[in-house]
Each structure stands twice: as C-alpha cells, then as structure tokens.
Amino acid sequence: MPDPQFLLLAMDMRARAEELLARAETFHEADAQRKLRKIAADYENLADLLKRRAGDETYAPSRGRLADTDGMAERPSGDNPKPPASWDIMCRVAAKAKWIGTVKAINEGAAIEAAAKEFKMEAWRLIAVRRRVIT
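The structure corresponding to this sequence follows.
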C-alpha cells in the first residue's frame, strides 16, 4: 500500500512546480524565467522520486512538460496528433545551465536530439525544458 505521506509530499511538489511555471510567465527577463523553469523541473523530478518512494503500484513517471520521457513508449497519436511543442535548450556548464536556444519537438528526448544536431553539441550536455504557453 502506498505511503500517504510521500504521496501528499509528491502532490505538494507538483503544485509548487505549477506555481513556479505560472510565475515564470509573469517575468519579462529571460534569465529569471529560465531559472524559475529549472526550479520547477527540479520540483517535478522530486515529485517523481517521492511517488516511487511511496510504493505506489499505479505510479508512472510524469509525462508532463518537464519530465524525462526517454525510454518510455510513446502514447498512440490517434487521428489528431499534438503539434510539436517549443523547448528551451540549456547546456550544462560546470554546475550551471546556460540557455543556448529553442527547438520544436514532440517530447524531451526528441528536443535534445534535435538540439544536439542543430547546435552541434553532445546530447548528454543538454537539458530541455518545455516552454509553457498560457492561453
């Protein structure tokens, strides 16, 4: 049986991630937006870790805009596939991430592959963060 404390913490981390993403859109400075998106990605990763620790049998890693989807089966597209999303691409430099550009892709793995080709960099150095569109 899943540990309810871990599940509550996971829900709290996801809520914090959503709040940071919404707050990032209110900033006009690109650097501040990137930093908030990175923190939100860390909160989502922490939420995934907490779900695993909870022992939730129904757990599946988040397929949201910030989660790593490498190695996972793609969802069937059906008749109306979703258009590619925009992804901010950052390069790992020392202990920091430096923004290098934006690409369009259907998931994080595809975004990193496209960025590696476009920016002529090793894929392991790249981080992709999905750009949030507020409607």
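The chain has a mean pLDDT of 77.
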